[in-house]
Write a structure and sequence with these properties.
InterPro entries: DUF6886. The protein is of the alpha+beta class and 168 residues long. It has one domain. The protein is built from four helices and ten strands. The strands form three sheets. It has a four-stranded mixed beta sheet with strand order 9-4-3-10, sandwiched between helices. The longest helix has 8 residues.
Length: 168
C-alpha cells in the first residue's frame, strides 16, 4: 500500500498535478511507502529533514548524525513549528499499489499518471504519538540550516521537505 497525508479529510479522488520542485516532470499523483511515511506525519507546510542509515552510510556518519539513537529514522523540524505539529489534524489516505511506480526508492516516493481514488481515509490522531509508534526520533531545532549543510556532504540517506518555508 501507498499513502498520502493531508489536512483535508474530504478528498474524493487525486488528480495528477505538476510538482513545483520538478517542473520537467509530467503531472502525477504522489504517494509514499510505509517505511518513509513518517516524513509526512507533519502539517503540510512544515519544513523538516528526515535522515537515516543506508547501505552506503559510513560508520563515521552514523556516529555523527545518529549518535546513540537506534531509531529507524530521525526527523528534525524547526522549534517554531512545535505547537502546529502538536495541534495538527492530519488524515491518512491509503492507495492500492497499482498503478503506482517507484520514482525514488531511497525517499519512498511513488507516482501515478492517472486519477486515483483512495481505498480509505482515516484520522491520524496525535502526530507526536504516531512518530513515536513508528520508531522515529523527533529533533526540534531553531534552524535546519546547520543540519541541511552537513547532510549534503554526508553518506546519510536524507529527505528535505518544504525547506522553502524554513528559516534558512
Amino acid at each position: 500500500m501507498y499513502y498520502h497525508f493531508s489536512e483535508d479529510p474530504s478528498i474524493i479522488c487525486f488528480h495528477p498535478r505538476p510538482h513545483p520542485s520538478h517542473p520537467s516532470l509530467a503531472p502525477v499523483v504522489w504517494a509514499i511507502d510505509q517505511e518513509k511515511s513518517p516524513l509526512y506525519f507533519f502539517p503540510r507546510d512544515c519544513p523538516r529533514i528526515g535522515f537515516g542509515r543506508s547501505a552506503k552510510t559510513t560508520p563515521e556518519d552514523t556516529a555523527r548524525f545518529m549518535g546513540y539513537s537506534d531509531a529507524s529514522m530521525i526527523i528534525a523540524a524547526e522549534s517554531a513549528w512545535y505547537q502546529r505539529i502538536k495541534e495538527a489534524k492530519l488524515y491518512k489516505y491509503t492507495f492500492p499499489p497499482n498503478p503506482f511506480v517507484c520514482w525514488d526508492h531511497g525517499a519512498g516516493y511513488y507516482v501515478c499518471h492517472e486519477t486515483v481514488t483512495p481505498l480509505s481515509v482515516e484520522p491520524m490522531g496525535d502526530l507526536l504519538d504516531c512518530l513515536t509508534q513508528a520508531n522515529v526520533e523527533l529533533r526540534l531545532t531553531p534552524s535546519l540550516k546547520p543540519l541541511h549543510d552537513s547532510l549534503l556532504d554526508s553518506t546519510m540517506q536524507f529527505s528535505m521537505i518544504r525547506l522553502r518555508n524554513a528559516r534558512l
